[in-house]
Design a protein that fits this description.
Helix content: 10-25%
Order of helices and strands: EEEHEEEEEEHHEEEEHEEEE
Radius of gyration: 17 Å
Distance between the termini: 44 Å
Oligomer: single chain
Strand order of the largest sheet: 4-3-14-7-8-11
CATH class: Alpha Beta
CATH architecture: Alpha-Beta Complex
Number of helices: 4
Length: 226
């Protein structure tokens, strides 16, 4: 039997409320899923179908650990999001049955090197280095889905001051639509996470900032930028 020629990377896993670990396979993110945020980023929500980008699984920051300010950027932005944890995979999943594929939910932060993203947009290049850098995905504990949050507040405080505040029902594409659309592009599998977009109010962060994101009925994410 062949042996690994280098040590294999560790399995990325997230704590689950009530006990146990959720192994993470892939991390998908939905862009511009709240109309006000789409407009603040220069988009037209009436003309944009859902689009997706990714983060590496090992970009997640768990357990309330500190988050390092990234290299190669002077303009780090916060984006608080509801995160969906997939428990049952599939392809071409119908909207009507999409929620049966959900294991649970968490609160996450899609941190963005906004200066690199703007450079990439201007050059018509991919966003990978603006979105998928080290420690770009602080995330809270996964809450198993006894119910599915279709309404409720989503907020982010920085140093105790509210920066972002929105309503889940203001999503352009609700969770079932997101799962259905993504499953037409890739085969979803247990262990996949989907960041579902952020409300307006995104803005810059500095070293020393303390962040607290919350999704009503789901939970919180807390981290400090160092």
């Amino acid at each position: 039997m062949n042996a690994y020629i280098i040590a294999p990377p560790p399995q990325i896993a997230m704590p689950v409320q009530g006990g146990g670990l959720f192994p993470v396979r892939r991390v998908y993110c939905v862009g511009r899923n709240y109309a006000a945020h789409a407009r603040e980023m220069g988009g037209d929500p009436s003309r944009e179908p859902p689009f997706f980008f990714t983060k590496p699984a090992d970009a997640l920051v768990t357990g309330g650990a500190d988050t390092p300010f990234p290299v190669a950027s002077e303009n780090l932005h916060h984006e608080v999001e509801l995160v969906v944890a997939i428990g049952q995979g599939g392809v071409d999943i119908p909207v009507e049955t999409a929620l049966s594929h959900v294991f649970g939910y968490a609160v996450g932060l899609d941190l963005t090197r906004r200066d690199l993203q703007e450079q990439a947009k201007a050059a018509r290049q991919p966003w990978d280095m603006a979105k998928g850098f080290d420690a770009s995905g602080p995330i809270g504990i996964i809450v198993p889905a006894d119910t599915h949050p279709v309404a409720g507040r989503i907020t982010l405080q920085v140093n105790g001051q509210v920066r972002q505040s929105g309503e889940l029902q203001d999503m352009i594409w609700p969770v079932p639509d997101i799962i259905a659309a993504l499953s037409r592009l890739v085969r979803l599998a247990p262990g996949d996470l989907i960041f579902t977009g952020t409300p307006d109010g995104v803005g810059p962060l500095q070293r020393g900032d303390v962040l607290r994101g919350e999704v009503e009925g789901v939970g919180i994410i807390e981290t400090r930028i160092v």
